[in-house]
Structure formats: structure tokens, C-alpha cells
Amino acid sequence: MMTETLSPAEKAHVLLEALPYIQRFAGKIVVIKYGGSAIEPDSGAIDPVILDIIWLKQVGLLPVVVHGGGKAITRLLDRLGHPAQFVDGLRVTDQTTLEAVEMVLGGQVNQQLVAAFNANGCKAAGLTGVDGGLLAARKKEHPSGDLGQVGEVQAVNTDLVHALLQNDFLPVIAPLGCDESGARYNINADSAAGALAAALGAEKLILLTDVPGIMKDGQVLNEVTSSEVQELIADGTIAGGMVPKVGACLEALRGGAQLVHILNGKEQNALLLEIFTQRGIGTLVRGV
Ligand SMILES: Nc1ncnc2c1ncn2[C@@H]1O[C@H](COP(=O)(O)OP(=O)(O)O)[C@@H](O)[C@H]1O
Ligand SMILES: CC(=O)N[C@@H](CCC(=O)OP(=O)(O)O)C(=O)O
């Protein structure tokens, strides 16, 4: 292990460096979006991201996990011979696609994550945005045309999430929602995480993906403001799946989140390094 190469004083320093961050964030809600691009298919091996999140909870933070699963949905659609189609990072969702989305997000991926948390000593409970009226959705209108059953969050009822947190459960949330008529919607997981972070008054929103942050000319941008984000979208630097991600960041900031980050979930212990050390990693998105 890497710690074997550290002297006892260096090991103690690592622990002491974390102390002010533990004190600052204890009791605070941190929404973590775990993207389908970073979640490995079920391999049986312990996912290091799961251990990082358990660590956060163990030292008194209140993590809330929102997961994606876009790659797994596309794999299922491929097996069904049903082509996947995206517009601005959003999956066009016909009836067959909605069924696949519900199976993968509400079933496979959610249960894979919950089982992994529980197996590693962390009480986790899986739910979708349909449960307890968590994510009240409506059909998302898009300038490019009809996206089918793609939803956008209209309102968030946080009662169930608070009930879980109060009972020491880690909420693991799949981004599905429904409207008052019972129609069900596929919601982009970043957008769901942004809306939840805003509604929960989260201290932090962290979006874990498969790239080191927002990239420009091959370099990761350490920090961007909301107005720079608009320019980066307009000039095509930010495209595809990164578009809903930055939208989620801006929504969380508008909702009062103090710190919003995009990190590479595949980078070893990215979460712990970002939260508990002075080392800045990924992209920090600022409100101004
Ligand atoms: N400027 C950018 N910087 C980084 N990634 C970008 C950028 N523009 C587009 N992307 C794309 O966004 C992807 C991340 O979004 P997505 O595939 O939806 O991930 P996730 O499944 O983690 O939500 C990256 O893998 C990359 O292909
Ligand atoms: C409307 C829409 O695009 N929904 C997404 C929901 C899953 C998701 O966002 O997963 P990632 O975070 O892994 O991309 C989809 O169907 O792929």
C-alpha cells in the first residue's frame, strides 16, 4: 500500500490535514452524482468510490448519492436492438427506451450500488425520484423537437431523503420522476443531482465523471464562472454530456450550494482528496 512509503510523521500529517475539513463539513449535506461513465460494470471488486463515500459518512458528513447509468442503458438497448439517440446529451426516450431506463436505473445500477454500500458496512437505501414524490417532473421541451419521455424537475419533495438521513441511511437515488397524472419520466442524472442539491440546501455538489473536469484545448480548467460556462457552451468547447452537467452546477449554486465541483471518478480517491486536502482537483464552478 502507498501508506507504507510514508513515515509515521507523514501519516499523522495526512490525518491532521483532514481535521479542519471534517469539522467544517460535519453534519452538512453533500450531494454526489456518480456518473454511468465512471461506474464500472458489476465486477465483484470493491469500487473505491464506494469506500470514499462510506468514509465521508463515517466522519459525520451527510452524503446523498444520485447515480447515472447512461452507458448501461445503452448496452441494454443494444441488446434489444433498439438504437440510442441523444440530443444535447439527453436521451430521446420512447416507450421501449423508458422501460430500459427504468430497468437499468431503478433496478440494476441502483441495486448494484446499494448492495455494495451495505456489503461494506454502510446502511444504504435505494430509491428513485418517483418514491415519496421526490422528483415531480414534467415533459422537457427542447428547441430541437420532441424528446419523448424526457423529464425536467419541476419540484422536489425532500421529506423521504430527510427521513433516511435522520435514520442514518445513505440515500442512493435513481433519476426517475413522475407528474401528477402518474406519467413517468427519464431525467438526466446531472440535472436531478443539481435540483436535489438546491432543494436540500447542500453545502457541496460533486459530479463524478470520466474526465478530469471541464477541458479546454486539452487542459483541465481549474475554475470557471457561470458567465464563462455560457461562453464555453456557445463556442462548442462544452458539448454533449457536459452540457447538463454544467447546467446542474449552476442550478445548485443558485440554490445556495457553496462549492460545486466536477471531478474524475476514476482518479484514485478523487473525492477524499477534493474534500479533505488543500490540493484542488477537477473543475470548481463558481456562481460569478
Ligand atoms: N469541455 C469538455 N470537457 C470535458 N468533457 C466534455 C467537454 N465537452 C464534452 N465533454 C464530454 O462529456 C462527457 C461527460 O459526460 P457524460 O458522458 O454524460 O458523463 P457521465 O456519464 O459521467 O454523466 C465526457 O466524457 C466528454 O466526452
Ligand atoms: C434524459 C437522459 O438523458 N437521461 C439519462 C439518465 C441516466 C444518466 O444521466 O446517466 P449518466 O449520468 O451516466 O449519463 C439517460 O437516459 O442516459
UniProtKB/TrEMBL annotation:
Pfam families tied to this protein: AA_kinase
Key words of the record: Amino-acid biosynthesis, Arginine biosynthesis, ATP-binding, Cytoplasm, Kinase, Nucleotide-binding, Transferase
Site feature: Transition state stabilizer: 33, 245
Location of the protein in the cell: Cytoplasm
Family matches, as SUPFAM superfamilies: Carbamate kinase-like
EC number: 2.7.2.8
Catalyzed reaction equations: N-acetyl-L-glutamate + ATP = N-acetyl-L-glutamyl 5-phosphate + ADP
Keyword field contains Kinase: yes
Protein residues bound to substrate: 69-70, 91, 186
Protein function: Catalyzes the ATP-dependent phosphorylation of N-acetyl-L-glutamate.
Family: Belongs to the acetylglutamate kinase family. ArgB subfamily.
Protein name: Acetylglutamate kinase
Organism: Tumebacillus lipolyticus
